Amino acid sequence: xxxxxxxxxxxxxxxxxxxxxxxxxxxxVRKYADDAEDVGADIWAGLAELGVAxxxxxxxxxxxxxxxxxxxxxxECLGAHVAPAPFLTTxxxxxxxxxxxxxxxxxxxxxxRIADGSLRVGAALAEACGARGxxxxxxxxxxxxxxxxxxxxxxxxxxxxxxxxxxxHIVARDAAGLGVNPLPHVDRTQRMAELTFDxxxxxxxxxxxxxxxCRAVIDVGRVVQAADTLGAAQNMxxxxxxxxxxxxxxxxxxxxxxxxKHLCAEMAAAIEPSRALVWYAAHALDEVxxxxxxxxxxxxxxxxxxxxxxxxTATVVHGGMGFTDLxxxxxxxxxxxxxRQTLGGPERVxxxxxxxxxxx
Length: 360
Hints:
360 residues, Butyryl-Coa Dehydrogenase, subunit A, domain 1, Butyryl-CoA Dehydrogenase, subunit A, domain 2, four-stranded mixed β-sheet, four-stranded antiparallel β-sheet, 54% helix, globular
């Protein structure tokens, strides 16, 4: 049995990488990171033209109707370029929520707009992955109250919000009583906000009443986020190898030093099996559902650790230059750190994996 990407998936990967090579270069990423008014509309519009926004949307609603593995392929490309795009929240989390928990009217209203790139959806699911302090959202009579920390995509047009019972709601950005407060954090390629609700009108996704839809959305998000980390880690390794081939010490390129060779080899050895795990986790969610949740936990935890190791080691290979903004290596470092903690850190998801297996 041969397990790998299909010809179509390889072509998708090449197409997305080619677009990002031209339109999401490091200078463009820096501009986004330094300008709060820049929402990256040009990058997202271009990706939408390529069908990225429509990837998981059913054909009946103007989408392409592909699967989680295809989304993972795209996410790996985005992570490799540290592209500032709302792919995870809009094209993955929101679409999965609407497909699994939305009624026919909600799907007809929102999915076509997501597919054509005209609607951005943020996601406030942090409390469903482990609440902090007094944060949390309550729902009553079609209105939300409380606070949702660490909402993804502060620039979104509307938000997917999980309440304390893990029911899912759609909230318009201009809804009465909604406060969107930007939260500064480590990764400036992905914006985050604190959402405050004061009897804010919200639209319940009726299929999310038992909380299972929320957990399914988080499962998909974790796999796609792991793929993003994989792409960032691979790029950091590539940069480290390229730098080692050029940087000279004692009249020799440092790539000729055995210690540097070992560091690069260790990174490559960590990344390669991780790629297979990402692919299988994405495949399992659609094709082997009984393994989906457990594998999603495994891949999220494993890539968090692998990504951290590669980020640290690649920076060591660069020496002092690795900490400067001149090379911009820190954008990938911070992307990996951000992905490590959102939608559940490795400790949290390992605990969930233990519960899935009946060990806790």
